[in-house]
Amino acid sequence: MGNGIFRPKRQPTEATKDTKKADDNGSVGNWIFRPNHSQRLIDWWAIDSYFDSSIYNVWARFLDRWLAYSNFINQFRVTGFRRIVAELFSEAATLGAGGLVVLLAFAIPALELTKDPNWRQASEYSVTFLDINGSEIGKRGNLFSDAVPLEEIPDYMVKATLATEDRRFFDHFGIDLIGTARALYANLQANGVVEGGSSITQQLAKNLFLSSEQSLTRKINEAFLALWLELHLTKKEILKMYLDRAPMGGKTYGVEAASQFFFGKSVRDVNLAEAALLAGLYKAPSNYSPYAHPIRSRERTNEVLTNMVEAGFMTEGQVHSARLNPAKVIERSDFYVPNYYLDWAFTEVRRIMQGKNQYNLVARTTIDLNLQKAAEKAMAETLEQNSRSRRVDEGALVSMETDGAVRAMVGGRDYNISKFNRATMAYRQPGSSFKTYVYLTALEGGARPNMMVSDSTQACAGWRPRNYSGGYHGRMTLTRALAKSLNTVAVQLSLRDKYGGREKVLRNLAKLGFPVVYKGGKTRETNIRRQRHRIKRSCSLALGDQGVTVLDHTSGYATLANGGKRVKGYAITEIQNSRGKLVYSRDKDEKPAPQIFDRKAVEKLNKMLSVVVAEGTGRRAQLDFTTAVGKTGTSTKYKDAWFMGFTGKYVTGIWFGNDNFTPTGRVTGGSLPAQTWKAYNVVAHTNFNIPAIPGVPLHPRQVEEQKRIAQLKKEDPTMGTVAERPRSGQYLPMKTQKVLQRLIKMFKEARPLEGASVKGAGLDNTATASP
Known about the structure:
Blueprint: H1 14-25, E1 33-36, E2 39-42, H2 44-74, H3 81-112, E3 126-130, E4 136-141, E5 143-144, H4 155-165, H5 177-190, H6 200-209, H7 216-232, H8 235-245, E6 247-249, E7 252-253, H9 255-263, H10 272-279, H11 294-310, H12 316-324, H13 339-352, E8 360-365, H14 369-390, E9 394-401, E10 406-410, H15 435-444, E11 452-455, E12 474-477, H16 478-483, H17 487-495, H18 501-512, H19 528-532, H20 550-561, E13 572-577, E14 582-585, H21 586-589, H22 599-614, E15 629-634, E16 640-646, E17 650-657, H23 672-684, H24 700-715, H25 734-749
Parallel strand pairs: 3-8, 5-7
Antiparallel strand pairs: 1-2, 3-4, 6-7, 8-13, 9-10, 9-17, 11-12, 13-14, 15-16, 16-17
């Protein structure tokens, strides 16, 4: 046994022991590491062999699978004609799938429009307004009416619609392919658009969801929406909605609204000629309007009658009479419309009805047309007489009762020239008329009307107020300071923490409904315009250095007129829908006005304001039949002039100025505004039956009138309200008796007629210092 074969057994070293241990544990494969004396070496050949064999096995498996797949596919291999058919089918499937994706891409935006649960309703309000007596005074919005059921619409109205717009309405699925092809052929022959291919369902889809834009996208959306409507509505429902929603001209939508507009009667009562005229408007209301184009309208009406004969709905003999006796529209002469007031009332209706899904409405308003005309006349006469000489072009007026019911509103000089409502939308500096709120805050904080104050300036952040007269008047009562409209005293009151300071003034303004910013206050104002004009703390806050509207300012003074209850000027008392159902009532749906100020403090302030009119800057607003209280206001450089005042019945705010904020010819609150206020109130108050102002005694003339009426009641307890029995033995109708009784009572209570001239212009001393 040589040493080359047999070797003596060696004792294992520490290294071999570790290697053996590692191999036994399987942590390192034997095929890589081999014990070699005292070292471990990597077997690179083993690694190469492993990867080579693995890649080979993967490739072999892939070839086996590919061969099996090829054998399977070869079973479907075709040639000749069968291959052509297969290729065509394959291409059609590919193009069809692609087309379906494209159609779905167009359908998604169209169907998104149907997510609104109120899609059946008109998107725009249609409101008819009534005055306090229930008489119609105007309309706003688009005029819709769905009050007439389909069964009550005359048969020839429906036939005229179908014959002209969609003869195959009850036969197609929303898109009339035959009608569309016929329209395309006719248009190609005429080398222009002479016939429309849209079905009634497509037109309804456009009216409900889309605009009148002429584009391919709109037509595609219209087609998808028409299919959607056919799936969700019956044919009768679609026809009824079309008859109620089709644009008919004159801002009317639907046959009922159009019939009322053109003929002054319900569609239930139209004859064949009138129905044909209405059906002729579907195509182009403005082109075939009987008012704007009577000849075109007549030709279009005859065309509709011919369509009815061609469609087989009527015979030539049946339509012959309608051709000989064409429809006659009513005269639409212009009548008086309080446009500024109605614009504001329309916004109030939309605010009240938001989210209630009621759009065709009748609203009873608070306006008194007699007061409205008196207000417009007073403003017009003042501007006509003084516009050129005093360089003032515009004015605004709001008059309301002490609960906020607005009886008159003038938003500008001429609505036809400018529809901007300066009574509700213009934010102008109120000047010294704003001091009233500062004095109210001071009175609530413990100040007294007879409290002595010093007419001296007080600095605020380096700014010092100046009086209009430029001097100082020493010590005087708080009442006298208000009557003379001293800027220095008002600023002192606003800066004294003892009386609440400016933060308390701002909190009181918030109670009154002004948009304000103050410490700890959270505004819920959603109106963008009001957000931009929120009143903020400033040194000259007491002098009215920030903008307010005439409506808000008048509402603030109305709070004083009623003893401290919050007032928000309102225009709407009741709203009914098109079926006569009451959907809003102010008495039931609005909470009672809260008491926001101490009544005693308000009464003290009213007494002080009466001195302003009796002895101070507001003397030109004095009335000789009742007590008037109020405050003048003039902003810096005479850009704004105000008079805010009230009697026991009406609260009226008046502003004069220029839209471009240029200075007027030294117009102050005590001149043109006070004179206009007086001219209006002389006409507005028709008798002495005027309540007392809280804290202010009745006017001597009112006291005398009360004594006179008391004496008349003593002599005749019925005050002439019992009608004397006619000698002939026949009685007057009860309605006539009531009218006569009211007339007798009115004549007895009426005050004597006296002239009320408007005096010349003057100045007051209420201009504020520069903000």
